[in-house]
Amino acid sequence: MKRAEEVFQLEKTDGKARAGRVRTLHGEVPTPTFMPVGTQASVKGVSPDELIEMEAPIILGNTYHLVVRPGLEVIREMGGLHKFMGWNGPILTDSGGFQVFSLAKIREVAEEGVTFSSHVDGKKFFLGPREAIRAQHVLGSDIMMAFDECPPWPCERAQMEESLARTLRWAKVCREEQLSLGTNQLLFGIGQGGDHADLRRKSLEALQEIGFDGYAVGGVSVGEPENLMMAAIDHSEPHLPADRPRYVMGLGHPDQIVRMIGKGIDMFDCVLPTRVARNGTACTETGPESVRKPTWTRDEKPIVNGCGCYTCARFSRAYIQHLIKAEELLGLRLISLHNLHFYLETVRQARAAILAKRWDEWSCEFVGRYRRGGKEKEQETDED
Fold first, then answer.
1. What is the DSSP string of 165-218?
2. Which of 26, 285, 286, 323 is the most exposed place for a label (fewest CB within 10 A)?
3. What is the Cα–Cα distance from 16 to 291, expressed in whole angstroms?
């Protein structure tokens, strides 16, 4: 485990909200930060150059999906994940532990790890804590995640306790494997415990005894109501070390991210920006909007006035609606570019507000005007 100052610099706080920098092999990541999700070595519909243009500081890949396809041997022969996908910035890789939860029908959990049936061709393979760290070492990600078990919601306490005990045993093995490899890649531990405050505390205290470069709150956005999701963050935050990066995995909507920054969280990822784009939904300062609205048919304005993204700088709402209705792929790409820019700009503004000691004013204004509407599905899936 690296010394805290080698991993994270805390620059300023405003209440619980934090502004800092995570130091990785491929550069520093200013926090709060949002990580575009590139599950299969690609952020859907967006090129690395476009991610650079929108100043994405770090992206996320998924170990399980990359092991299944194209496979570790291919990525090793291609020079690692950065070279393979043409991205020179930092990468965080999820360990594959989330698939323990999401692929319940095609996996078997044992003490040593999990036997999966590939969702692609049914081929069986094994992934445990040692295998997950070795795989991420081959991928060459800047931040590796410990292999954990993510219980479903709802979950009986006895089942949660059993699962948590296994996750902590796996966490120790992950740390041992990292040390044996002698890698400079960072390794984050993942806290579990569901909506039980005492189990959340137990989880994070045990992880700190093992010693990790950063700490994540896992097992949220797995089907539970939003109030329980936020409660899990509240239960966890007091037990997260102040001198290490803090990461909430796999969520959320922009207003959720802002609220969690206010609870002391530094890092986020979510598939929603590109997923809702494929449904013709664009992010705006007042909430998501369908580009199919009749009022957009002859609207010359951009999606968001004053937005600095490629899409808003060049195209009208009318044109984007035309592309979506005509089922032109460019339409999905343009909305994806805008939505990712919106998420990234939101965390940039959050960081600026913390540094200027304007957090309460800025965050209250953002959350006050943002309305999600409808009943969007909160639960994450494997695919971005």
1. HHHHHHHHHHHHHHHHHT--SEEEEEE--TT-HHHHHHHHHHHHHH--SEEEE-
2. 286
3. 36
For 359, residues 6+ apart whose C-beta sits below 8 A from its C-beta are 14, 15, 17, 262, 350, 353
Asked if 94 is an active-site residue, the reply is yes
- In the annotation, is 142 catalytic? no
Q: What does each of the 384 residues of the chain score in pLDDT, given as a tens digit?
A: 899 999 999 999 999 999 999 999 999 999 999 999 999 999 999 999 999 999 999 999 999 999 999 999 999 999 999 999 999 999 999 998 887 567 767 788 889 999 888 888 888 889 999 999 999 999 999 999 999 998 889 999 999 999 999 999 999 999 999 999 999 999 999 999 999 999 999 999 999 999 999 999 999 998 899 999 999 999 999 999 999 999 999 989 999 999 999 999 999 999 999 999 999 999 999 999 999 999 999 999 999 999 999 999 999 999 999 999 999 999 999 999 999 999 999 999 999 999 999 999 999 999 999 999 754 444 445 567
> What tokens does 25 get?
């092999």
As given in the structure block, the two tokens for residue 188 are 């984050």
Considering the entire predicted model, what is its pTM?
Answer: 0.96
Cα distance between the two ends of the chain: 31
Give whole-number Cα distances, 326 to 165, 321, 329, 332, 349, in Å. 52, 8, 9, 11, 35
Contact 245, 10 (CB under 8 A): no
Question: Tokens for 3?
Answer: 């010394």
Residue of 142, 213, 255, 269 with catalytic role: 269
Kindly list the structural domains of the chain, giving each domain's residue range(s) and its CATH number in brackets, ordered by start: 4-270 (3.20.20.105), 277-369 (no CATH)
DSSP helix/strand/coil, 26: coil
Using alpha carbons only, what angle is made at residue 178 by residues 177 and 182, rounded to the nearest 5 degrees?
A: 115
CA–CA dist 194, 186 (Å, integer): 25
Q: Which of 14, 94, 213, 382 is catalytic?
A: 94
